[in-house]
Amino acid sequence: MFDFLEGYDLLGAFWVTVQLTVYSALGSLIWGTLLAGMKVSPVPLMRGFATVYVNVVRNIPLTVIIVFSSLGLYQTLSVALGGDDTETVNFRLAVLALVAYTAAFVCEALRSGINTVPLGQAEAARALGLSFTQVLRLIILPQAFRAVVNPLSNVLIALTKNTTVASAIGVAEASYLMKGMIENEAQLILISLVFAFGFVVLTLPTGLILGWVSKKVAVKR
Amino acid sequence: MSSVLYDAQGPRAKQRNILYTVLFVLAAAGVLWWVYTSLDEKNQLDWIKWEPFFTSIQPWETYIWPGLQNTLKAAFFALIIALPLGALFGIGRLSDHRWVRMPSGILVEFFRAIPVLILMIVANAVYSEYTTIDTDVRPLYAVVTGLVLYNASVLAEIVRAGIGSLPKGQGEAAKALGMRKSQVMVFVLLPQAVTAMLPAIVSQLVVIVKDTALGGAVLTFPELLASVRPMSANYGANTIACFTIVALIYLLVNFALTSFASWLERWLRRAKKSKGTASGGVQKTTGEPSLVVDDGHAV
After folding, report:
1. Which parts of chain A have pLDDT scores under 50?
2. What does each C-alpha distance from B28 to A51, A69, B17 come to in angstroms?
3. Rounded Cα gap, residues B225 and A208, in angstroms
4. What is the model's pLDDT at position B40?
5. Cβ distance of A109 and B296 shorter than 8 Å
6. What is the pLDDT of residues B246-264, one digit of tens each?
7. pLDDT tens figures, B15-57
């Protein structure tokens, strides 16, 4: 029944999806945290930059950003991110675009987490003489991160699904393989179910595990 | 108050902030300079590449306006079909009957777990294989189908959350009046929930508008993003200029929607407040319903 799968590297395609997800998740966590830090910082210019960045990026389709990274950055401006062949270049550009996009949502999630930390915590920390960076790093962010595990897991699930957009610039991840298979094979419904199942397998455990973690680490107030 | 995180600034803090500002400006200027030189190197800043958008109506008429129309058309159809479906499944998940609750739950969770792009590709293939829909409109059908399946399940969750956020007394009072379950839902719960949900629904429209771009990139749907390639081919490889204009249009449309959603939220909150409370000023414990079910799921 599943012999149509022969000759296709199904696991390989999903492995690319996983790689895209992991690299972009790490990148957007770092960039998103920096943005959230800027957004609450005492320097008005940084606050303004973070606000504008988040609002602009959230309102532009990810597809536009990813297609731009290929047509605009690579083909027009020859930004290759150190890749030699088209395959590596497209993969890295896709990660760059996903990071740029997802970071805006990470920033928003973190900022809402910062808002859940009671005022007294920051006041007490300031009364001890901690500086802004110390208050943020030692008091606020650890608590904020524990509060936002759930929203962040939603962002991660969205990111997993968003990696499919990379197929628009020819990154050979799951949806790219699926499109090819649908064109060449007659088993439309079976192919669709296999790939749907693949994504359920990827996203469902993420939600369940991180949901459990979020209950486990939540600061009881 | 400035912020939770820092006090009103003294002289030293002010100096430090100025230092940070200067450093930030220098870093930003460095990045901008790099962007400028690399753009300039590839002649992307030449006036001739930008001039078509400012001096003639032709690119707007031939490429951008039809593309934008298709984008908005797909988004509009997707919303008006997804909204009733979403309400149906949202209510289905709240049903007392297991045989209604279970399938609605499974459907909603299933379609939420699958990328919209996959749904669109499958819909496109299904239409080409099993129906006689004309190839001209097939991408539109596929895009709308994908968007409807995904967004109906998201809207179902929004509806469920909206109904869940209503005070329990609302349903109880309606039942005490002798209403049937369907009457309680249709006349009492749903209208209130829809009002509470309106901002979330408008925000979801942003997600829908953004997702239409997938159809242009993968399914040959002639929407706004798809107009970039023919446009830059026609006006001398002005890729950067085309992307800038297209991104700006998306930005304006979605920013208008976002602003409308937050205005709506403020307006609804004020309208609710001015009515006063029936319980003699007792604060409602439900608080602001948090309806962000799908944060970041936007493609």
Report:
1. none
2. 15, 20, 16
3. 36
4. 87
5. yes
6. 999 999 999 999 899 989 9
7. 988 999 999 999 999 999 999 998 888 888 888 888 888 888 8
**H helix runs in B94-137, sequence order:** 98-113, 116-130
- What distance in Å separates the CA atoms of residue B221 and residue B227, rounded to the nearest whole number? 10
The DSSP secondary-structure symbol of B177 reads T
- pLDDT at position B291, please? 42
CA dist., res. A67 & res. A76, Å (int): 12
Residue B103, both tokens: 């399938």
A-chain CB neighbours of B31 within 8 Å are: none
- Band (pLDDT 50/70/90 cuts) for residue B296 is very low
pLDDT confidence band for B293 (50 / 70 / 90)? very low
Q: Taking residues B112-133, what's their average pLDDT? A: 91
Closest CA to A95 of A45, A146, A34, A30: A30
pLDDT at residue B4 is higher than 70: no
Judged by a CB distance cut-off of 8 A, whether residue B214 touches chain A is yes
In 3-state terms, what secondary structure has residue A144? helix
A67 and B225 in contact (C-beta within 8 Å)? yes
Cβ neighbors of B46 (< 8 A, separation 6 or more) are: none
Compute the nearest-CA separation of B285 from chain A (Å): 17
Nearest to B296 among A42, A154, A195 (CB): A154
Q: Tokens for A43?
A: 């320097």
Could you tell me if B106 and A168 are in contact, meaning their C-beta atoms sit under 8 angstroms apart? Answer: no
How large is the C-alpha radius of gyration of chain A?
20
Within chain A, where are the H helices? Answer: 10-39, 44-59, 62-68, 86-116, 119-127, 132-134, 141-147, 149-162, 174-184, 188-217
CA distance B4 to chain A (A): 6
Residue of A nearest to B129 (CA): A188
What is the DSSP code (8-state) at residue A26? H
Residues 6+ apart with CB under 8 A from B182: none
A63 with B38: CB under 8 angstroms? no
Which sign does the torsion angle of CA B233, B214, B250, B36 carry?
negative
Q: Shortest Cα distance from B71 to chain A (angstroms)?
A: 12
- Dist CA A145 CA A157 (whole Å): 17
Q: Looking at beta carbons, which residues of chain B come within 8 Å of A53? A: none
Token pair, residue B280, equals: 């003699």
Complex ipTM: 0.89
Q: pTM for this structure?
A: 0.88
